Amino acid sequence: MRPATDGVWELRLFKKKKGSQARRNARRWLLQARKYALLTALAGLVGGGAFEIWHAHALQKGEKWLVAGALARSAHAGFVVRDIVVTGHRNTPNATLLASLGVKAGMPLFAVNIAAAEQSLLGVSWIKSAIVSRRLPDTIVVALQERTPVALWQHDGTISLINKDGIVLKTDNLEKWQNLPLVVGKGAETSVAELLTTLNAVPGIASQLVAAVRIGDRRWNLRLKNDITVKLPEQDMELALSRLAQMQKRKNILGRSIASIDMRQPRKIMVTPLTDDKTKTSI
Q1: For residue 122, how far is the Cα from the chain centroid?
Q2: Cα dist from 175 to 135, 178, 271, whole Å
Q3: Rounded to 5, what percent of the chain is helix, strand, coil?
Q4: Which of 31, 108, 192, 274 is the most buried (most CB within 10 A)?
Q5: What is the pLDDT of residue 277?
């Protein structure tokens, strides 16, 4: 990859040979085409929908011949795919990108079905949006917006990488994302955004988080680094975490030998010491 002029990193899927005779021919043809409006006619024929319909076998034979002939002449002039430039790429596998685009080196540039390529890219779990375009004379440009992973989700014995909307992002290397928080249980994937946003307001608690367990798809239990379980309420989770952060600041409650902190009652906090009898005390 190399940085583009606007600071966005570019990925090149093909290694283009610079200064080739074919490229020089294409540029020469492009100048002539602009002069005689030939390129405009070709773009109207292909980009205007004729090729897409032809590709679906719905044009009459004469129209097929016309499009095929135009594509052949443009390819002979040098308008063939020699490079694919991708911006916005971070985590989508290169092989997945290339397969979804359906573009091969050497195919006529105007034979690339732009709409189909964009739709295919949107089927990749990592990709939120995709814009595909042609850069004359020989380049396909792909502008991506990828989804950002925010957590690991454990459900039915499987751990998946998810974004803030709970969309599973396919990856073969979960170890790369072990620094992300673990959320557990049904409904955890669709509630993770609210939880993480709330935790961001209390970094002292967030830094202690090991896992968050969704209980009945109604509330959360937090498992902290020192094996303390914090039981959060269904309502006013922000207030409960704020109170916990204040207790930690004043009393270092998370540094004590306790098993759990129950914050489900609005006016009472129940603390279970780490002892054999598990006697609860209120704060």
Answers
A1: 10
A2: 38, 5, 35
A3: 40, 30, 35
A4: 192
A5: 52
3, β-bridge pairs: 9
Domains and CATH numbers, the chain: 2-146 (3.10.20.310), 149-282 (3.40.50.11690)
Residue 76: pLDDT above 80? no
Please give the backbone phi and psi of residue 24, each rounded to the nearest 5 degrees, phi first.
-65, -40
Please report, for residues 106, 183, 234, the alpha-carbon distance to residue 215 in angstroms, rounded to integers and kept in the order given: 55, 11, 10
Give the residue from 93, 80, 104, 84 showing the smallest Cα distance to 15.
Answer: 84
Q: What is the spatial distance between Cα 201 and Cα 199, in angstroms, rounded to a whole number?
A: 5
Q: Is the pTM of this model over 0.85?
A: no
CB-neighbour burial class of residue 157 (10 A; exposed 0-12, middle 13-18, buried 19+): exposed
Q: How many CB atoms lie within 10 A of CB 18?
A: 8
The separation between CA 146 and the C-alpha centre of its own chain, rounded to angstroms, equals 3
Torsion angle defined by CA atoms of residues 114, 71, 78 and 2, in that order, rounded to the nearest 10 degrees: 10
Per-residue confidence (pLDDT) for residue 50, from 0 to 100: 44
Give Rg (Cα) of the chain.
28
Cis status, amide bond into 3, omega within 30 of 0 = no
> 3-class SS at 262?
strand
Point out which residues pair with 12 in neighbouring strands: 85
65 Cβ contact partners less than 8 Å away, ≥ 6 residues apart: none
Q: CA 188 to CA 223: how far, in whole Å?
A: 14
3-state secondary structure of 280: coil
Please compute the mean of the pLDDT values over residues 150-160 and round it to a whole number: 96
* pLDDT > 70 fraction of the chain, expressed in percent and rounded: 72
